[in-house]
Design goal:
alpha+beta; Fructose-1,6-Bisphosphatase, Chain A, domain 1; D-Maltodextrin-Binding Protein, domain 2; 2 domains; eight-stranded mixed β-sheet; five-stranded mixed β-sheet; 9 helices; 15 strands; binds 2,5-anhydro-1,6-di-O-phosphono-D-glucitol; binds manganese (II) ion
Length: about 325
C-alpha cells in the first residue's frame, strides 16, 4: 500500500479483501487508535497536566499503579464501550473481565490490552506503550466470561502496539505481515511509514535485565555467558546489550534492527509462585504474533508462545523473542542440546 496512507484507509483497503467483512473490525481498530492518540497526548504533556507519579492503589498483580496506568485503562474503555465493536475487554489493570453497559451494542470481538506498558519509565521520560490483542467473541453471548478469553495466541485476529517515543508509532498485524504507522500530530492521523517489516534471522544484540543474573536458570546463564565472551568465546563475535524496561520499546528495536529479548523465569520469580514476569495475554501473545509475522520467533524456552493454552487471563509466562536463529539457539539450550 502507498506510504503515507492513513491507518483508517489502510484498514478499509485491507478489509475489502475479506469476504463478509462488515466494517466492524475497521471500527474497532479506529477506536483503539483514538485511545492511543489520547494516551499519546497525555504522555507527551506529562507534568504539565499532572499525570506523572503513582496512585495509592495496586493492580491484581500486586503492582502499584501509576496515574497513567489508570488513566490509560479508562481511555481504552471509554473509546470502546459504546461503539458496538467489542463484546468485552480484559486488561492488565483490571481484576476481572470488563462487561459493557447493559444498553451498549455488543460487537464480535474481544479485546485484551496492556494499557500502559513500561510504566516504570513514565516518570523518567523514557518510552512507554500500549499493547493490544484481538480475539473473536463467542456468538450470541451478551457478557463473555473469562473462559471465553482463554484461547491460545494462534487464535488472535490482530495484535499491535502503540509506542510513545520520540515519535508515536502504531505497529499492527492482522496476520498478513507487520506494518508501521507514525502519528502526524499536525493533523492527528497515523500514516503508513513502513510495510512488510522483517527481523534479521541473526543478531549481535540481546536484551535482558542482568540484575536478575544470579536467579537465572542454566540455559539462559549459558547463553548470556557465551554472548559476553564475545569474539574470544564460542560465538566468535562481540555482542551489544540493551535494556529499556519497556517491552514495547524493546520489540520495536528488534523489529527495526534485529535482536533477542528475554524475560525468562528465574529462581526468585518461582519462589514467589510466578512463572516468569510478563503476562501471556496482554504482552507475550500480541508481541509473539507481531514478531512471528515479521519472520522472527517467540518461545517460552520449552514451547512456542502462541501455542500456550492459557489457564487464566492474568497468567504470566517466560518470554524469549526476536531474531529466529537466536531464539532457536535458546530453545536448544533449554532442551539440553
Ligand atoms: P508494565 O509496565 O506493563 O507492568 O510492564 C513492564 C514489563 C515490560 O515492559 C518490561 O520488559 C519489564 O516489565 C521490565 O521489568 P524489570 O523492571 O523487571 O526489568
Ligand atoms: Mn507491560
Ligand atoms: Mn502495564
Amino acid at each position: 500500500m502507498r506510504i503515507g496512507t492513513t491507518l483508517t484507509n489502510y484498514i478499509i483497503q485491507n478489509q475489502r479483501d475479506i469476504d463478509g467483512a462488515t466494517g466492524e473490525f475497521t471500527g474497532l481498530l479506529n477506536d483503539i487508535a483514538v485511545a492511543c492518540k489520547k494516551i499519546a497526548d497525555l504522555v507527551n504533556k506529562g507534568a504539565l497536566v499532572n499525570v506523572l507519579g503513582a496512585t495509592d492503589s495496586q493492580n491484581v498483580q500486586g503492582e502499584t499503579q501509576k496515574k497513567l496506568d489508570v488513566i490509560s485503562n479508562e481511555l481504552m474503555i471509554e473509546a470502546l464501550r459504546h461503539n458496538g465493536h467489542i463484546a468485552a475487554l480484559a486488561s492488565e489493570e483490571m481484576d476481572s473481565v470488563y462487561h459493557l453497559p447493559a444498553d451498549a451494542k455488543r460487537g464480535k470481538y474481544l479485546l485484551l490490552c496492556d494499557p500502559l506498558d513500561g510504566s516504570s519509565n513514565i516518570d523518567v521520560n523514557v518510552s512507554v506503550g500500549t499493547i493490544f490483542s484481538i480475539l473473536k467473541a463467542p456468538e450470541g453471548v451478551a457478557n463473555p466470561t473469562e473462559q471465553d478469553f482463554l484461547r491460545p495466541g494462534t487464535k488472535q485476529v490482530a495484535a499491535g502496539y502503540c509506542l510513545y517515543g520520540p515519535s508515536t508509532m502504531l505497529v499492527l498485524t492482522t496476520g498478513n505481515g507487520v506494518s508501521m504507522f507514525t502519528l502526524d500530530r499536525d493533523f492527528g492521523e497515523f500514516l503508513l511509514t513502513r510495510e512488510n517489516v522483517v527481523i534479521d534471522a541473526d543478531t549481535k544484540e540481546f536484551a535482558i535485565n542482568a540484575s536478575n543474573q544470579r536467579f537465572w536458570e542454566a540455559p539462559v546463564r549459558r547463553y548470556i555467558d557465551e554472548c559476553l565472551q564475545g569474539a574470544d568465546g564460542p560465538r566468535e563475535k562481540n555482542f551489544n546489550m540493551r535494556w529499556v524496561a519497556s517491552m514495547v520499546a524493546e520489540v520495536h528495536r528488534i523489529l527495526t534492527r534485529g535482536g533477542v529479548f528475554m524475560y525468562p523465569n528465574d529462581a526468585r520469580l518461582k519462589s514467589n509462585g510466578k512463572n516468569g514476569k510478563l503476562r501471556l495475554m496482554y504482552e507475550a501473545n500480541p508481541m509473539a504474533f507481531i514478531v512471528e509475522q515479521a519472520g522472527g520467533a517467540a518461545s517460552t524456552g520449552q514451547q512456542r508462545i502462541l501455542e500456550v493454552q492459557p489457564d487464566e487471563i492474568h497468567q504470566r509466562i517466560p518470554v524469549i523473542l526476536g531474531s529466529r536463529n537466536e531464539v532457536k539457539r535458546l530453545d536448544d539450550y533449554h532442551l539440553g542440546a
